[in-house]
Sequence to fold (424 residues):
Amino acid sequence: MNNLCIVGLQWGDEGKGKIVDALANDFDLVVRYQGGSNAGHTVVINGQKFVLHLLPSGILRPGKLCVIANGVVLDPPLLLQEMDELIRRGVKISDNLAISDRAHVVLPYHKELDKLQEADPSRNKIGTTGRGIGPCYVDKAARTGIRVGDMLDRATFERKLRANIEQKNRLFETLYHAPAISCERILEEYLGYAERLRPLVCDTVGLLTDAQAQGKRILFEGAQGALLDVDFGTYPYITSSSASAGGVATGSGVSPKAIGRILGIMKAYTTRVGEGPFPTELNDDIGRRLCERGSEFGATTGRKRRCGWCDVVAVRHTVAICGVDSIAMTKLDVLSGLETISVATEYRYNGAAIARFPAGAEMLAKCEPVYRTFAGWTEDLSKCRKFSDLPSNARAYVTALEEMLGVPVESISVGSGRDDCVRR
Fold:
C-alpha cells in the first residue's frame, strides 16, 4: 500500500505540520480530511515560519496536489486570507489545490453561536477557539448545513441561508438576547467568496478514486489529535470531528482499505489547550519550563498550552484506536537540561490501578498518574541526525517509550526546522 495517514496521538499540537511537510515529497497528493480553521500547523523552512489552518501542509512542497476533503468544515474568508498570504510569500496556489464540493461551510452565525455558548453560564465551558467549528458540525449532523457546492448556485445558497438565519435569529434573540444577523450582507459577501473559490471546487471523491486507480501515493493529514476525537477523546472536552485515523474514510471518501500505513505523532511530553482533565499536567517550574522552551502557544489562538509529562496510558489508547504502525516523536530537544524525566505508566482511581484510558472526563479528572522516572541529559540535541548521536539517556528514554507503547519510533524531532530530525 502506497498511502500514509498522519494522525496526532495526544490533544493536538504534536507537530503534525512539520512531519507532513517533511514526508510530502514522497507522495503525489496531500489530503486534509477533518477539522477546520481551529487547527494550526506550523512549518519552519529556512528560518521562515508558516502557520496553516485550512490548507494542507503539503502546499509548501512544489508539485504536490493538495486536497481539502469533505470532512473539513471550510471558512471561506479565512481560507482566502491564508491563500493570499502564502501567494504573497511566493507559494504557488492554483491547480495544485482542490476543494471538495461536499465540505460544509462555516458561516458567521456559527461563530456567533460558538461564542454565545461558551459564555453561557448554564453550559460547561469547553475552551473552543470560537471559530464556529462545533456549531457547523452540529448543522451537518442535523442535515441543515450548507456545503461548498451549494454556494456555487445563488438560488440554492440563498434558499438555504435564509432558512438557517431565520432559525438562528430566533435562537439568538429568544435564548441569548443577542442581536439578529443580516441575511443580505452574508449572502452577497459569501457569493463573492464562492466566485474566487469556484475554479478550485470539484468532486474530490472522484479525484481521489482516479488517483488511486493511477497508482498515485496519497498522504492523509489529520488535524487536532485523537484524544480530541468526538467519539474516543475526553468527551465533552473534545473537538467535533473524527480526529483519529478512522476519520480518513468518512472525511475523504476513500475506502478504509486504502488508508495504508498509519504514522502517529506524539510529543516527548504532553500539552493541552482549553478545558478538560489532564492527569500529568505540571503546574510548577518544570511545566513553565516546558512551555517556554517548547514555545507552547497555540498557532490558532495564541493561547498558552498546558504542559505535563508524557502519558503512556493516554497514548496507548490512541495507538490502539488508530492502528498505529510507527511513531514520529517531536520536541525531544525540549527535555534537555532536566535532571529527571517522568512518564505516567498507569493511573490510580479510588486506590485501584487503572491501565486503560477511562471514557468519562469526570473519572479521568480523579485519576492520579503513577510515574516511572528516567535520568535526564544536558546535551544539545539540535545537531543530532542519527539515533547513535543522541545522548545515552535520551536513547534510553525513547527506547523505553517504544517498549511501553509496543510501537517503534521511526523519527525524532530535535528542533523546529524542516531538517531537524533523527531518522531511524
Q: What stands out?
A: The chain has three domains: 4-101+201-262, 104-196, 266-423. The radius of gyration is 22 Å. The CA atoms of residues 97 and 372 lie 46 Å apart.
